[in-house]
Design a protein that fits this description.
Number of helices: 13
Radius of gyration: 27 Å
CATH class of the largest domain: Alpha Beta
Largest sheet: 8 strands, parallel, barrel
CATH architecture of the largest domain: Alpha-Beta Barrel
CATH topology of the largest domain: TIM Barrel
Structural class: alpha/beta
Number of strands: 21
Distance between the termini: 48 Å
Amino acid sequence: MVIKSNGVMKEKLILLAAFVLLCTACKKGASIDNEDGRPDVVTFRPERDEVSLVRNPLMGWTLYDDANDYVANAAEYWNAQDHAATNYASIFYIRWRWSELEPEEGKYAWDHNENFKALVKGALDRGLKLAFCIYSDGQDNIYNGTPDFVREAGAEGYGSRRLWQPESDLSNWTPYADDPVFREKLTNFVKAFAAAFDDPDRVDYIDGYTLGWWGEGHHVKYKDPANKGPVFEWFVNLYGDSFKNVPLVIPFGTEMGLDYEQVVAMERQGFLIRRNGLGSTWFQDAEVNFIHSVFPRIAFIAESCYWGCFADNCRPWASDPLYGSVYRSWKDVYTQTYQDAIRGRANTLDLREAVETRGWLLNGKDLVEDFVKNGGYRLYPVRVEVPETVRSGETMTVEHEWENGGTGVCPNNNVRWNYKYRVALAWIDAASDEVKQVAVDGKSDPSAWVKGKPTSYALRVPLQVPPGNYRLGLAIVDTTKDNTPALNLAVKNASTIDGWLVLGDVSVQ
């Protein structure tokens, strides 16, 4: 190629070359001469990962053991779900009857039920966090939700329909929600449950209001209907006062009414929200608008409506008032469910049990992969800028900028996390890989990072390391655990030391 040059062309070429050098320096972490009078700086721009599975607390695809029929056999379950657990999921959700968790008074499944323990171990061994919904209602269920010892102790209740039986078959039993014996026994269980599982290292969230069918707050019965409000407050406060560290969730839109739920559960006890029914008439603009009205202050846990099969001749959605005449296949169902999750800014969505997981991966694998990329929260540093020349004992300014590539939010502001996650930098000795100094930015807050709105901070650091060569590390740390790196960053080809993302080499004079 022949280029004719003149004075103007030469000037343009010189400017273009300077621009290329500047961009290259930014990417490599080299120093940049600034024209605004600031000291020369080194800018690090980690390469963002927009595709890979990034697991973090309270987000991602969720596998279920949804025991409205029989609880899963642990060995069979994990044999069927291993691929999904390894490649797509982040959470294992246990929705069991109280009667399965405490079949005899004071005898708990986590101590005595080997199958339960194997299910939990299978999840944790695969890197999944746990979540729970423990319900007491026997309506539309194969077994009683409440243990027999509660009725034997004198609790009053009523017959309820057993799953797969005629409407007239009321062979299950459910206690009235305001019965004092029921309340006493459930209080004992929840306190024991919290003692075992109020552990954010293993558990992402707990459903904190689980009366009614399937623990979703519907068709609750009382001896005295005037007790409806007091029972709701008692139940929410029982969980809220028992669980201090693991976030709690309420299925919004129950028969209690949204205003009451907001005051009692969301405002007073800091509950997150869930909605069961995505991809159906039960999730429309009104639900989306409410979620948006509390976002990003409150994170949203999502669950699909239609499940139980995936074959063409099985269509539980056929009678849906909104979509029954629209859906032609399960791919249509999955597509609408995914779209509802994204427009609802969902932190989680369910692959569910093995049959539903198989359906998603056979007929909607692209959607599964898209939720990995777009659902929940996906945090990455856009840039980190430090002075090129620093001296031991001086105070330096570090500028850092962050983005959230997911449509959800990291619920760092939740009362049970209490802003424990903060951005921190580490000066790591280049010879020994030993962390010599950690600086935490107390103003940084991942719960403020939402998609499409980069957030920048300037951190003043009194540098206390001796002169020498260091690697600059970056992390979102858990301040309740001596500032150890905690959240996984969406960074490609990351080099790490003890969980710290290595940005590059720096020297201290």
